[in-house]
Amino acid sequence: MATAVDMSSSYDEALQAVEQLRRRHVALPERVYLSLMEKANLERRFGAVSKHFTQFLEDVRAGVVALPRLSDSRRPTQTSERVQMHRHVLWALFQGPPTTRYRRMQSFFRRHVQGKHNAMRILESDALNFLLRVECTMRFVTALNVSQGGHEASRTPATPDDAEDNDTDAVTVGDDSWLARVEAILAELRALRFYTTYSSSHALFHLLMRRPDVVLSGRPGIYTSEEQEDALQETLFHLLDTYPRPLERDPRRLSLAVSMAALAGRVSMAHALLQDAEKRGVAIDPSSFAHVMTASTDDAARQECADLYARAKRSDRLYNDDDENRHSMSNFLLLYAIQDGNFAQIMEILHEMEFKKTPALANGVAMLFRSFATYRAKHRGAAAASDCPTLVQLMHSFPTVLPRSTHVLSLAVKHALRAGDLEDALTVLRTTVWSTDVVLRPELFSQVQYALLVRGAATPREQEQLLEVEKLFDAQHPGQRHHLVAQLLNLCETNADVAAMFTVLDRFHTHENAASFPLSRRAIQRVMDTISGQLKALSEDEGARFAVDGVELSYRALLARYPLLFPLDAATLSSAIVRSATAGLADDVLTLHEAASRERVTLEPVAYKVVLESAMDASPDHVAEYADAMRALGVYNAVAARFPAVAARVEASQQ
């Protein structure tokens, strides 16, 4: 597999390695298919790119791709590898005949990309804007040869079949630099008389301002900071002048460019854009002037910006988009400030949005909370953590930007736990239940409850907090305590936490309505799976006994300890008997069979088979008693027919 994903290997070498893995029936991860498609694109085998993507889809349907495991309740999400596959297919289609190029790209885009959520949250309305957005996403910025004569194309000539989409009229960009790829997309948009979306043009401005090493990679020479600034400014205005339709100088697009330049510290470029807007009579958002004023480092630059603003105001050239999607620009800037990890800019934009009464978009709230939670968790206990506000402090400081909606409050609880701020998570739960009409999902209460349980020996204060969470849950979900327990048991199983599981069962078993709400079949399965995993990890000698916090670790002890939660029915007892035998607890097998006989429960045939085997191993002289008891219940013949080898051993022992 290393050869398949190694970028130093050729396409033929990688393909040969992949074919060997497929013959051995190895489940290949997405990155292997992606590597093949990237190598095919680099060597101009454009037909092979689409073939590998088709093969990938067929393998996904056949279930032979090693995909990441996801919960059934999670929203289907395309991974970043899948997004890059779409990118390579679109580039391969981009090399087709000009008359059909866009139609084929758009057909693929609608079938595989549009309307499908992806991990990178790249959502565009057409194939070309999607491709431009991906090219301007930093983690995807790699060398991709789209030229007619790139250096990678000379490694291995494409076969006629591989080059079936490589028409002589394909786009020629001249080199494989990032700027060449971007210009190829913009040229196609210009030919079609299409515009770039604000999200894709903002991504373009962001990468152009932030990554001069990528933007200027195709130009020779080593730049000083002044030369680099001039080269970037020249590149930006070259794009604006050469592609006036895709990059139309409208108020919002130019305001975004000015703000992005200022936030990136490129003040001279921001001033140049403001002067260009003044010359062309384009209105600029007042916030963009404020960003330039803040970024300016000397009085002369600030005075120049103030003069530009004053002239724009006198000429009524201030952009006010109250009638449009007013929050778009601020939210674009917030998303990229979070992506850059620039705390000062994040706080500046949040204050600006609060002043304008602009709420954050759902995506922005998720990214903001995740960023702050990750930082606080990383610097937990350090002085740096105190410099970063908690999520509760953020919500108090920016009530309009972060309104008390179900989405915001749910994310606040989730990410407060991720940050290790348990008190904050409790505060959000408490204020939500008693001060708002918002109803939170049961999973959030269980996550807070589990975080309290895993602390170990609970202090009186923590016991009060556990009771408080249960009361808060009952206030929002009356009569649904069994749902809370089921969610807690799910978390215990996920984390293989037997101690917390017994604590949960102890608390629920003493609940006044425990007898009315026995555990569901799925919850019982989770509990037994957790015990099975723990016994498997601990057992060295067959039949060894273990205890966790004074509680014996066995299925017999489990059923005896929690009679209100575990009904002694056929499914529960049969599962306990089979699992006990698997764990080597032969005595428990016979004890559980006796309990089933007392309760007059007819077990499943496999459980009777296990009982007979355990009886023959433990006391062969008493096997007849178990067989006669089964005959009395009328189940022995069914067991003998299904397991003839066991029946033969029983008959032999009775002779």
- Summarize the biggest pleated sheet: 2 strands, parallel
Termini separation comes to 60 Å
Number of strands: 4
Report the principal-axis shape.
elongated
Strand content: under 5%
On the 0 to 100 scale, the average pLDDT is 85
What's the Cα radius of gyration? Answer: 33 Å
InterPro entries: TPR-like_helical_dom_sf (IPR011990)
Region (Disordered): 149-168
Features:
single chain; 655 residues; mainly alpha; two-stranded parallel ribbon; 34 helices; 64% helix; TPR-like_helical_dom_sf
Write up what this structure looks like.
- InterPro entries: TPR-like_helical_dom_sf (IPR011990).
- Residues 149-168 are annotated as: Disordered.
- The structure is a single chain.
- By secondary structure, this protein is mostly helical.
- Among the domains are: 2-239, no CATH class; 463-566, no CATH class; 568-655.
- Helices cover 64% and strands 1% of the residues.
- The protein is built from 34 helices and four strands.
- It has helices at residues 2-5, 11-23, 30-42, 46-62, 80-94, 98-112, 127-135, 178-192, 198-210, 212-215, 225-242, 251-263, 267-280, 286-295, 299-314, 328-340, 343-355, 362-378, 383-387, 391-397, 406-419, 422-435, 442-453, 460-476, 481-494, 498-509, 521-538, 555-561, 570-582, 586-598, 605-618, 623-633, 636-642, 644-654, and strands at residues 28-29, 65-66, 547-548, 551-552.
- The strands form two sheets. Strands 1-2 form a two-stranded parallel sheet.
- β3 (547-548) and β4 (551-552) form a beta hairpin.
- The two termini are 60 Å apart.
- The relative contact order is 0.03.
- Mean pLDDT is 85; it is low at 142-174.
